[in-house]
Amino acid sequence: MSDVILDVEDLTVSFHLKRGVLTAVNGNSFQVQRGETFGLVGESGSGKSVTARAIMRLIRTPPGQTSGRISFDGDSLFDLTEKEMQDIRGRKIAMVFQEPMSALNPVFTVGSMIDDVLRTNLGMTKGEARERTIELLRMVGIPSPESRVNSYVHEFSGGMRQRVMLAMALSCDPTFLIADEPTTALDVTIQATILELISSMIERFNMSLLFITHNLGVVAHACDKIGVMYASHLVELGDKEEIFEKPQHPYTVGLLNSIPRMDVTEKWLTPIDGYVCNMLEPPAGCKFNPRCPHAMDICREQIPEWKEIAPGHFSACHLHSMS
Amino acid sequence: MAEAMLEVTDLHKHFTLHGDLVSRLAGKTQTLKAVDGISFRIESGETLGLVGESGCGKSTTGRLITRLVEPSSGDIRLKGEDVLQFEGKKLLESRKAMQLVFQDPYSSLNPRKTIMQILERPLEIHNLAENWTTKRERVLELLNLVGLGREHVDRYPHEFSGGQRQRIAIARALAVDPEFIIGDEPVSALDVSVQAQILNLFRELQEKFSLTYLFIAHDLSVVRHISDRVAVMYVGKIVELGPASEIFANPQHPYTSALMAAVPEADPKKPAPRLTLQGELATPIDPPPGCRLNGRCPKATPECGEITPPLLEQAPGHFVACHNI
Q1: A143 Cα to chain B: minimum distance (Å)
Q2: Which of A306, B40, B151, B155 suits a disulfide with B159, CB 3.0-4.6 Å?
C-alpha cells in the first residue's frame, strides 16, 4: 500500500456559462498522505469547494468540464463508472458541508436519514441500522441519542446539526473525509467543540482529512499540511509550520499580515491592495499580479511555474526564479 | 464628567412569543428577553466594541439605539438628549447624528439604484444639497473619502465586489456628516484581505472626522483591533465591560475567558482552541433567575442560580458581572 491516499494531478475544472468560460480550478496538483490532515485555504471564489466537488465527481457536466487525474487509493476516479463511483462516495470518501440545514433533509428525522445510508450502503436490516445510528449519534456527542434519533433537523442547534452531519459521514467507516467549511456557520465556542470532535474522530478511525476553510486560524490548529489557493490556482503548499513561519508566496504573506491578532495591538493593519479579479476575465500571467506588491513585467505575461523551493514546500511565483 | 456621546441605562427589549394555537388559547405566552437590562456609555471620539455570540442581543442593541426597534424600557441619551422622546422631525434629525452600517453589503444596497442615487438619497432627505451640482460634488467627495472614484458613480451595486459595496455603505452613512456610527458586523461578510482594508478605513475616517463608533461584531480579534473599550454580551446581558487592553490581557468573567480560549489563532504555536464551558448557549426565552451562565460555568456556586450578578466595577473602568471573582 502506498502512503499517498489521494493524488490530484493537474486538476482543471471550468464552467461554460453564457457569459463566458469560468475556470474555477486551474491545473492544480497535490497529494494527501494516509492519516494526514490537509487544509485547503483561500478566500471566497478561489476554487476550494470546486476542488472538493471534483474529487467526489459532483461537478455537473455540462456546464462543468473536468480534466486532469485524481487517483484515490489506487483507483483513478475519472475512469470509474458512475456505479463504481457511487460505491466510493460515502463508503470510502465522505463529505461534511458548511450548512447542515441545507445539506440535511428537513422532512425526515435524522435517524431515518442515517438509517437509510446504512441500509443502502452496508445492506443492514432496519433494526441493525437503527442500533448503529444511535451508537453513531452517541459517538459524536449528541445527548440522549435514543430519543433524539426521532427528531427533525430544525429541532437541533447549529452545532448539534453539524454533529449529525458528522455522524452520517462516519456511518460507513470511510477512509477519507472531506470537510467543506464545517465550522464557518458556527459561533466560536461551538466551532471549538466541533474542531475537537473532528480531530478525535480522525484519530479514532485513522482517516485522512481534506479540510476546506477560509479561516487561517482554523487550519493552524486542525491541519498538518496546508495548500493556499488564489483565483483558481494553488499558489503555495507546505507543512503547517513552514507556511506560517516562512510563507514564500506574496499572497500567503499578505493574507497572514491582514489578520488582526488578539495579542498584537498595531493601529493599522496591512491589507492586500485591491480586490480579487473577475474570474470571467482574469488577468494574464499570475492571477495575483494586480494586487501584488512585487509584481514585475513577467508576472503580467506568464503564469509562474509550480516549484519546490524547499523540501516539501511548493510555491508558484516568479520571484523564486529571480534569486 | 464630560457629556457622553451615548448613554444607555437599563435598556430592555422583550419580545412576546405567542406560540401555537393551543398555547395561545390557553393564554400562555413566553417572553424572549433579547436585551435584558444593559447599561453603558460611549465617550465622544471613542470606539466601543460590542462582542458576543449569535442571539446574545448585540444587533438588537444597535437597532434599539437607532430606534429601528422600540425598546420595552430603559433610557437612551444621545449627547444628553433623550432619544426615546424624539418624534417626527426631531427623530429624523437625530438620524443625521447617528448612522448605521450593516453586515451584508449585498442586501443593504438597493440593486435597482445607481451609486449616485444611493448616495444622494440621504442628502435629499436631510436637505443637505442646494442643487444638482452641489449634490453631485458631495457624492464624488464621499466616494473619494472611502477610496472609490468618479468612474463608479453611475454603476449599480452588482458591479462591485463585497469590499467595494461595504465602502459604498460607509459612504452612505457618512453622507449626513454623522458624529456617531453604529457598525453592525460591518466586516463579517468580507474576506480577510479586504476586511483589513475596511477596518483601516474605519480608523482613518474616525481620525479625520472624530467619529464615535459602536462596533458590533462576533470576531474577537477584529474587536480587539478596532476598539478602545469592549463590552461582552451573553444572552441579553453585558457580563464584562472595560478597556480593550485590560479585557484581552486579563479577562475576569468566565464567559469572556471561555470565548477567548475558543478562538483559533492563526499561529500553530498558540494553544489549540477549546471550550471551557459545558453545554450550549442558554436560551433567552423565559430565562431562569440567576446568572445566565449558570449551568455552563466551571465556577458556579449555589448563589449563581438565585441572584443575577450585578455589573460591578472591579478595577477602574473594568466592570464584571460575576459572583465569584
Answers
A1: 10
A2: B155
Q: Please report, for chain B, the start and end positions of each structural domain, with discontinuous segments joined by +.
A: 6-320
Coil, strand, or helix at residue A98? coil
The proportion of chain A whose per-residue pLDDT surpasses 70, expressed as a percent, equals 99
Residues 6+ apart with CB under 8 A from A321: A304, A305, A307
**CA-based nearest residue in chain B for residue A143:** B279
Collapsing DSSP states into helix, strand and coil, what is residue A77?
helix
Q: Would you tell me which residues 82-101 of chain A have a C-beta closer than 8 angstroms to some C-beta of chain B? A: none
Cβ contacts (< 8 Å) between B264 and chain A: which residues? 188, 191-192, 195, 215, 217-218, 220-222
Picking from B182, B273, B169, the residue whose alpha carbon sits closest to that of residue B221 is: B273
| 3 state SS of B215 | strand
pLDDT at residue A102, as a whole number:
83
Instruction: Assign domain B6-320 one CATH number from 3.30.565.10, 3.40.50.300, 3.30.160.390, 3.40.1190.10.
Output: 3.40.50.300
For residue A165, the number of C-alpha atoms closer than 13 Å in the C-beta half-sphere is 30
Size of interface A-B (CB pairs under 8 A): 135
**Cα–Cα distances in Å, from B304 out to A52, B39, B273, B298?**
47, 21, 27, 11
C-alpha cell at B95: 438620524
pLDDT over 70 at A272, yes or no: yes
ipTM of the complex: 0.87
Contacts of A323 (CB under 8 A, 6+ apart): none
Task: State the alpha helices, DSSP H only, in chain A.
Answer: 48-55, 82-88, 100-103, 110-122, 126-139, 145-148, 158-170, 188-205, 216-222, 240-245, 250-258, 319-322
Asked whether the beta carbons of A310 and A245 are under 8 A apart, the reply is no
Q: How far apart are CA B146 and CA B174, in angstroms?
A: 9
User: Which chain B residues have a beta carbon less than 8 Å from that of A195?
Assistant: 264, 272-273
For residue range B54-69, list pLDDT tens digits in order.
889 999 999 999 999 9
Distance from CA of B248 to the nearest CA of A (A): 7
Q: Any CB–CB contact under 8 A between A121 and chain B?
A: no
- Find which of B185, B193, B222, B225 to mutate to test the A interface (most A CBs within 10 Å of its CB): B193
pLDDT per residue as tens digits for the range A230-262: 999 999 999 999 999 999 999 999 999 999 988
Q: How far is B60 from chain A (nearest CA, A)?
A: 18
Tell me the Ramachandran region of residue A45: left when phi exceeds 0, alpha when psi lies from -120 to 50, beta otherwise: left
Judge whether B281 is closer than 8 Å to chain A, CB to CB: yes
Distance from CA of A245 to the nearest CA of B (A): 9
B262–A269 C-beta distance less than 8 A: no
**Pairwise CB contact (< 8 Å): A259 & B266:** yes
CA distance A240 to A223: 7
For A170, counting Cβ atoms within 10 Å of its Cβ (0-12 exposed, 13-18 middle, 19+ buried), the class is buried
